[in-house]
From TrEMBL:
One of its GO terms (biological process) is RNA polymerase II preinitiation complex assembly. GO terms for cellular component: SAGA complex; SLIK (SAGA-like) complex; transcription factor TFIID complex. One of its GO terms (molecular function) is transcription coactivator activity. It comes from the Eukaryota. SUPFAM superfamilies: ARM repeat, Histone-fold. Residues 3-66 form the TATA box binding protein associated factor (TAF) histone-like fold domain. Keywords: Nucleus, Transcription, Transcription regulation. Belongs to the TAF6 family. This is TATA box binding protein associated factor (TAF) histone-like fold domain-containing protein. It is found in: Nucleus. It holds the Pfam family TAF. It comes from Orbilia oligospora.
Length: 450
């Protein structure tokens, strides 16, 4: 097969340098020159494609030469395509040459001088700290950032601006793209499909373990948070097991010490709070007892959030406490919602929240559930569960070191009567069944306003 580089060309170049070559050597050298030319042209085309262009420039050849560790050609730097001319020497031998652009000296002399460039200076400032952009003069203000989001970018900028100019109320906002690697996309899909697969416990446990220990999934955090929020919003009254799986995902992400969760705590609280104090969960609104383990799990996750991220979000614990208290005092809520709110108040602030927020309202809550418990209504079992968890919560006040009781010689009958008046007969009856008079005194002491 004949080479693209003729032997005559090789022989002419060698003779110009005073070297004479045999035909075999010239043929081998011509083949090698052709290989090198094809190699650098292939690399140049790759550089052109990576630049998003369809025109090959001399700078692509220069970059390809650098990538191949070859001395780049000098004197051919241009952003425009070269114009080639053709001349015939005779006998069908064409000669190609670069056409030089004609320059009018009068235009060059009379043209205005370019502006003097600014002096190069360098300053250091924080562009972003832990994903949050600080408000410093070098960074754009929030108003400027919102304006920049409306500016179209890319190859169709002129067309987009023209379309926006024809309409007074038109707003152009470019779509934001978050590019994930194929491995991360596969990890996300595999974890989601495994966690909601209740028949394969081993695969499900492995997926949660990977989510709990994998350090390189920080890019997937917004996707997991969005997925949990979407599923809880749309399926909270459809599938209880799916809600438990979503809580397992939240618990696993919180346990992963390699993930920076501070930015996602605010977005993660609403779906967890919904599973804790939602009015009705699952398809059966007439029987909410099967949802009580889910509510207990959700409250434990919120407690973990408050402990781990209470310092970075100073109002987190207080806002969660207000949400639980509001649900506890609302008689229009279901017993399941009250069940979750009692657990939430007990876990958010410990004995302090129980003594200050829960205990003064026990009698009012007992009046709300008394008729259901003393009667034979359809929700008696739910009301009894609420009373049970309420008594369990009150018994934790025995460990409160801030309340000191004194032996003042009161009889047990007087203490029983005072307890019934303070927290109601149902709760008092359950407390008195424990036979712990010290707990009774602590409850009565805590009921006295300071």
């Amino acid at each position: 097969m004949a080479s693209l580089v003729s032997i005559d060309t090789i022989r002419d170049n060698s003779e110009s340098m005073g070297v004479r070559l045999d035909d075999e050597v010239a043929q081998a050298l011509a083949s090698d020159v052709e290989y090198r030319l094809r190699q650098i042209m292939a690399a140049s085309i790759e550089v052109m494609k990576e630049s998003g262009r369809t025109t090959l420039y001399t700078k692509d050849l220069e970059m390809a030469a650098k990538l191949l560790d070859i001395d780049p050609p000098l004197g051919y730097q241009s952003n425009l395509g070269l114009r080639w001319g053709e001349a015939t020497l005779g006998a069908g031998q064409p000669l190609f040459y670069i056409e030089d652009e004609e320059v009018d000296f009068e235009k060059v002399i009379n043209a205005s001088l370019p502006k003097v460039p600014r002096e190069v200076t360098m300053t250091a400032h924080w562009t972003a700290i832990e994903g949050v952009q600080p408000q410093v003069p070098m960074n754009p203000s929030p108003a400027e950032a919102r304006m920049n989001e409306l500016v179209p970018r890319g190859a169709t900028t002129a067309h987009a601006l023209g379309a926006a100019g024809n309409s007074d109320n038109a707003t152009v906002k470019p779509a934001a793209k978050h590019i994930l690697s194929v491995e991360l996309q596969m990890f996300f899909d595999k974890v989601i499909s495994s966690v909601i697969d209740y028949e394969k416990d081993d695969l499900r446990s492995a997926a949660l373990s990977a989510l709990r220990t994998e350090p390189a999934i920080h890019q997937l955090l917004p996707y997991f948070v969005s997925y949990v929020t979407e599923r809880v919003t749309h399926d909270q009254k459809v599938d209880i097991k799916l809600m438990e799986s979503m809580m397992d995902i939240c618990d696993a992400m919180i346990d992963n010490e390699s993930l920076f969760m501070d930015l996602y705590v605010e977005k993660l609280c609403p779906p967890i709070l919904t599973c804790a104090v939602g009015k009705y969960l699952g398809p059966n609104t007439q029987d909410q007892i099967p949802t009580f383990p889910l509510r207990r799990k959700a409250v434990s996750i919120l407690r973990k959030l408050a402990i781990n991220y209470g310092e970075s979000s100073h109002t987190l614990r207080s806002r969660l406490g207000r949400s639980f208290l509001k649900r506890f005092l609302d008689n229009k809520q279901s017993y399941g919602s009250h069940y979750g709110s009692i657990l939430g108040l007990a876990n958010m602030g410990g004995t302090d929240s129980i003594r200050v927020l829960l205990l003064p309202n026990v009698k009012l809550f007992e009046e709300f559930i008394r008729d259901e418990i003393q009667g034979d209504g359809p929700r008696k079992a739910e009301a009894l569960e609420c009373l049970k968890v309420l008594v369990e919560t009150l018994t934790t006040l025995k460990t409160d070191k801030k309340v000191e009781v004194e032996e003042n010689g009161e009889s047990e009958e007087d203490l029983r009567t005072a307890l019934v008046d303070g927290i109601g007969p149902l709760a008092a009856s359950e407390i008195l069944k424990l036979g712990d008079m010290k707990l009774v005194k602590i409850l009565l002491k805590s009921l006295i306003p300071v």
